[in-house]
């Protein structure tokens, strides 16, 4: 099917021609599709292989067509809108505070379709791709379902649940026409003082690696072959969770072996899953910015890992190299030659395009690099089906904030709750009891949703539709009149069975969320539980926060502590656990420090946290882990990379038996090597041999299923003799 294409407006061309100083090409201009409307050209043929379509289209594109594809601009910076076609812009985004009015799914869809119609008026009719930060749901849209932020999903330890969430997010995003999500965040957060800790699934590489199932949920098993596909973006590459002091956009000071062992595995797994895009980090590695690091981007990501999607910069990141406002040609050349395929400009696109064109014509950026970037971008557009289906699929309109998606979010909330203290079995609470509820986050949908909620930094108050924790409590009890609420705890007396204090952080995002001075509770959150305790009533604290907070000094005053993280719009998931409809099953995705001065504290670093990584109580013992079913498995070793004095390897474990495995182990002779780090399993060594047993999340393998673990080691990268028996 050919698209309804039209010639570009002459007036729009004149506007952008002045900005870009377009010149006639020495070669004949490529044939315009609009000049031969009856023809179905190879790139327009949906039955043709995608590589052939890309090759055909590239041969028809001018340099300015190609440079436009590498340019992403903020929707609100597009003035006049005709510049979208005149400047051949390939991608539009909505930043954290970008919105529409009225803010609902219908208006978003109408806005998208209007922009797409403009994009399609170019001679070649190349559709735009529209990106947005859908980091815990379609969080820019009022009324969308908001899921727990990633740190809460990390506490669930449930890859299948996270994949279902990815699918739900894809449906809600597709409903608004938007076709590209800037998620998941695969950072490994190593210092809780960092303001983006809540965007991380956890502090160990195996946890975010296991939850890259979100990529599959968002995109489908194969991009474009299922309903409502949305390309995922693995971000932020590489090491942004490991900056010194937890400083946002700081410097990650690690050896290459440490960087590979801690921060690379989640991206490796995302690439294995076919992630459509990778967004680079503002941060640096040993003083070199990620956006300027050709070794990390071109050699490691695109070369060694075999990433076939496209690399996008972060917001205005390329305009930061020299510390001055405003693009320079040198900044653009450095980024593009490092491997950046699409630059999130996001505002001054005319200057950017002029400079980019100048760098190419001067030979400082090779035409082959421009073609490679375009091939990567266009491949995803073809795979996504944008050339055949460029407009919003209104069939998904009912999914935004649907009952089914909200029920899934409620399930995720209750699965994310981590019970850290339950003295005297105060929890679960009786539904018939007289209860007192207090705290600034008990009845605040904005606080419980956190940053990136209908705005970049988020804000307190009724910012969107949903159920607060207080509303969930009142809905759960047998008589709502027996629940009293006062934010500050005023009016409590000894008549109450228990008091629930819902306290914690107010919303923030990167930059403003950094807490170098400590992670203590604010004065209101100190006074409110203290006022409740003074009544003699047992105090249950529900902590709404994007990271562990410094609570050790107050913990003796509380009978129970429940880490609720940032649960999103479905506060009833918290009450499900408080009242015992569901026992808590969440496990800490990060180590909980005794005091802020202990930061950074991480699993295996020898420090003694208040609550260790993986800690989590429940209401009744689940009993010992059942023994694994008899089965057999094989292990395939592959040397992934090597350097002087060391190497990195991957081992793929496959269940070759006829029954399911509930655990596995792999053994091999070290041959003089020493394993320095390992992910996706647990390691023991002795007598010159290494044994790796499954992690909690990857032990179950059905017949024919595979999983993988990796390690770095000192010594030569030989092929070890190994066995892979079922777990004992």
UniProtKB/TrEMBL annotation:
One Pfam family linked to the record: Glyco_hydro_3_C
CBM2 domain residues are 626-728
Q: Which reaction does it catalyse?
A: Hydrolysis of terminal, non-reducing beta-D-glucosyl residues with release of beta-D-glucose
Claim: Ribosomal protein is one of the keywords in the record: no
Signal peptide region: 1-28
Whether Signal counts among this entry's keywords is yes
| Enzyme Commission (EC) number | 3.2.1.21
Keywords assigned by UniProt?
A: Carbohydrate metabolism, Glycosidase, Hydrolase, Polysaccharide degradation, Signal
Q: What class of enzyme is it?
A: hydrolase
> What InterPro entries does this protein map onto?
CBD2 (IPR001919), CBM2/CBM3_carb-bd_dom_sf (IPR008965), CBM2_carb-bd_dom_sf (IPR012291), Cellulose_Degrad_GH3 (IPR051915), GH (IPR017853), Glyco_hydro_3_AS (IPR019800), Glyco_hydro_3_C (IPR002772), Glyco_hydro_3_C_sf (IPR036881)
Record SUPFAM superfamilies: (Trans)glycosidases, Beta-D-glucan exohydrolase, C-terminal domain, Carbohydrate-binding domain
**Superkingdom of the source?**
Bacteria
Concerning its family, UniProt says: Belongs to the glycosyl hydrolase 3 family.
Q: What is this protein called?
A: beta-glucosidase
Please tell me the species this chain comes from: Streptomyces canarius
């Amino acid at each position: 099917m050919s698209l309804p294409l039209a010639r570009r407006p002459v007036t729009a061309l004149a506007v952008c021609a002045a900005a870009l100083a377009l010149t006639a090409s020495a070669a004949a201009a490529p044939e315009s599709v609009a000049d031969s409307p009856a023809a179905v050209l190879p790139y327009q043929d949906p039955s043709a292989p995608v590589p052939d379509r890309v090759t055909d289209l590239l041969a028809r594109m001018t340099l300015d067509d190609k440079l436009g594809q590498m340019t992403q601009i903020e929707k609100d910076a597009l003035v006049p809108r005709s510049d979208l076609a005149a400047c051949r812009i390939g991608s539009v985004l909505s930043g954290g505070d970008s919105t529409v009015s009225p803010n609902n799914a219908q208006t978003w869809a109408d806005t998208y379709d209007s922009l797409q119609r403009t994009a399609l008026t170019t001679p070649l009719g190349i559709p735009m791709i529209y990106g947005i930060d859908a980091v815990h749901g379609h969080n820019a849209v009022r009324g969308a379902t908001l899921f727990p932020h990633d740190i809460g999903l990390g506490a669930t330890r449930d890859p299948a649940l996270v994949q279902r969430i990815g699918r739900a997010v894809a449906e809600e995003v597709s409903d608004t026409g938007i076709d590209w999500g800037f998620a998941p965040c695969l950072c490994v957060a190593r210092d809780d003082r960092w303001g983006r800790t809540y965007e991380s699934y956890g502090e160990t590489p195996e946890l975010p690696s296991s939850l890259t199932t979100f990529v599959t949920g968002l995109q489908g098993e194969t991009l474009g072959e299922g309903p409502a596909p949305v390309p995922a973006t693995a971000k932020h590459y590489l090491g942004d969770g490991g900056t010194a002091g937890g400083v946002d956009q700081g410097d990650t000071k690690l050896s290459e072996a440490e960087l590979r062992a801690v921060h690379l595995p989640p991206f490796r797994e995302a690439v294995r899953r076919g992630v459509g895009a990778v967004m680079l980090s503002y941060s640096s590695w040993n003083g070199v910015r990620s956006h300027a690091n050709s070794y990390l981007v071109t050699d490691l990501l695109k070369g060694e890992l075999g990433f076939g999607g496209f690399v996008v910069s972060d917001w205005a990141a390329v305009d930061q190299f020299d510390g001055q406002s405003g693009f320079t040609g040198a900044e653009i050349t450095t980024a593009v030659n490092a491997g950046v395929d699409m630059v999130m400009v996001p505002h001054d696109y005319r200057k950017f395009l002029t400079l980019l064109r100048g760098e190419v014509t001067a030979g400082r950026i090779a035409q082959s690099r421009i073609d490679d970037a375009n091939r990567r971008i266009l491949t995803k557009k073809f795979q996504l089906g944008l050339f055949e289906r460029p407009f919003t699929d209104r069939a998904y309109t009912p999914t935004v904030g649907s009952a089914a998606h909200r029920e899934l979010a409620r399930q995720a909330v209750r699965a994310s709750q981590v019970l850290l203290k339950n003295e005297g079995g105060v929890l679960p609470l009786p539904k018939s009891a007289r209860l007192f509820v207090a705290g600034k986050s008990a009845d605040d949908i904005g606080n419980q949703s956190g940053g990136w909620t209908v705005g970049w930094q988020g804000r307190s108050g009724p910012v969107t539709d949903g159920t607060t924790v207080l509303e969930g409590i009142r809905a759960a009890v047998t008589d709502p009149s027996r629940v009293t609420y006062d934010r500050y705890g005023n009016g409590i007396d000894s008549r109450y069975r228990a008091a629930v204090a819902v306290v914690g952080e107010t919303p923030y995002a990167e930059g403003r969320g950094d807490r170098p001075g400590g992670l203590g509770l604010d004065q209101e959150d100190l006074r409110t539980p203290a006022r409740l305790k003074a009544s003699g009533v047992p105090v249950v604290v529900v902590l709404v926060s994007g990271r562990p907070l410094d609570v050790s000094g107050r913990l003796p005053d509380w009978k129970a502590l429940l880490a609720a993280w940032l649960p999103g719009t479905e506060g009833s998931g918290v009450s499900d656990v408080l009242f015992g409809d569901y026992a808590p099953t969440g496990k800490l995705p990060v180590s909980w420090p005794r005091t802020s001065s202990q930061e950074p504290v991480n699993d295996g670093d020898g420090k003694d946290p208040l609550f260790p990584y993986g800690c989590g109580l429940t209401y009744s013992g689940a009993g010992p882990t059942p023994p694994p079913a008899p089965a057999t498995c094989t292990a395939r070793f592959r040397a992934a990379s090597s350097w002087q004095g060391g190497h990195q390897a991957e081992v793929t474990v496959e269940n070759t038996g006829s029954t399911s495995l509930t655990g596995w182990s792999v053994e091999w002779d070290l041959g003089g090597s020493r394993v320095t780090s390992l992910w996706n399993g647990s390691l023991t060594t002795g007598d010159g041999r290494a044994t790796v047993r499954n992690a909690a999340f990857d032990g179950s393998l059905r017949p024919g299923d595979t999983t993988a673990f990796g390690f770095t080691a000192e010594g030569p990268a030989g092929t070890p003799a190994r066995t892979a028996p079922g777990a004992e």
